[in-house]
Amino acid sequence: MKIREATEADFEKIWPIFHEIISVGETYAYPQDTSIEEAYRLWMLFPRKTYAAVEEGQVLGSYYIKTNQAGPGSHVCNCGYIVSINERGRGLATSMCEHSQKTAIELGYKAMQFNFVVATNVGAIRIWNRLGFDTVGRLPKAFNHPARGYVDVLVMYKWLES
Amino acid sequence: MKIREATEADFEKIWPIFHEIISVGETYAYPQDTSIEEAYRLWMLFPRKTYAAVEEGQVLGSYYIKTNQAGPGSHVCNCGYIVSINERGRGLATSMCEHSQKTAIELGYKAMQFNFVVATNVGAIRIWNRLGFDTVGRLPKAFNHPARGYVDVLVMYKWLES
């Protein structure tokens, strides 16, 4: 498995992963019926960079990195990660998050913020905690979960400079 | 003083207020040299609605309201407020925030979130607290203050339904 910058051609393989996750509607604040054109804008165009985790010509997962706030907030980046449902449990989220932290430092960022981690997504929260992210905020009932109704959302944060 | 939806013509009078606040660089995560064109996009175009506080043909302040997160997060709105430096201390921020909460409910939102309240902006924090907003997060050193260096940022939140 190798993590490298995503190409235009990769997006064809990123889209099914994005779509399978978003259509379930349990973890990301994107509409469940997000179109491929909108997904392209959100995942490939708006971020500063997008990476793909690839193996034998297949895309297993992807992440983006972007500046979280402009001007006096622009030293903090934001990332989003998706892993193919078939490739869960292999540590891909961990590998991509570690890679993204290196990328962030290379791009000159000093901290990384996750704005919107759904509190029911305990697997992701455990991984981010293990990688040094602190829960710095809790937004009450900020996510409308398809099965559980309004649930809380965490804001997680890590200062990258040592 | 009256609060009403901002017109294209109002923006000419909103811009000097926006510019005087942003160029100081102490409270908003916009670049200090934000251009008038970019300010128009940020304040008038991207938000769902923009309002102006007017009196005798003058604009004293303005606020925008927009959806904070898409899809399963779209029941939470975000607002930003600016008050002319000459009109401080008259309760305009309070009036605009109360107005924005009514607007939010009319537009179908259930909660309001301020994503980025600079911790040194104690005047604003006191007003938001008095109006029922809770501090639900604290982002360490997320704002590069021109005089104080890296300072914390608060996330504030209010559930609007009673």
Describe this structure in words.
Chain A contains four helices and seven strands, in the order βααβββαβαββ. The first copy, chain A, is α+β, with helices and mostly antiparallel strands. Chain A has a seven-stranded mixed β-sheet with strand order 1-2-3-4-5-7-6. In chain A, a hairpin with a 3-residue loop joins strand 6 and strand 7. In chain A, helix 1 packs across helix 2. The first copy, chain A, is globular, with a radius of gyration of 15 Å. The model of chain A has no long low-confidence stretch (mean pLDDT 97). Chain A binds chain B through residues 22, 25, 28-32, 34, 69-76, 110-111, 113, 115-116, 136-146, 150, 153, 155, 157, 159, and chain B through 22, 25, 28-32, 34, 69-76, 110-111, 113, 115-116, 136-146, 150, 153, 155, 157, 159.
SSE order of chain A, one letter for each helix or strand: EHHEEEHEHEE
Q: What is the approximate shape of chain A? A: globular
User: Averaging pLDDT over every residue of chain A, what do you get?
Assistant: 97
Strand order of the biggest β-sheet of chain A: 1-2-3-4-5-7-6
Counting DSSP H or I runs of 4 or more residues, the number of helices of chain A is: 4
Which structural class matches the secondary elements of chain A? alpha+beta
Segments of chain A where pLDDT lies below 50 for 5+ residues? none
Q: Characterize the quaternary organization of these chains.
A: homodimer
Radius of gyration of chain A: 15 Å
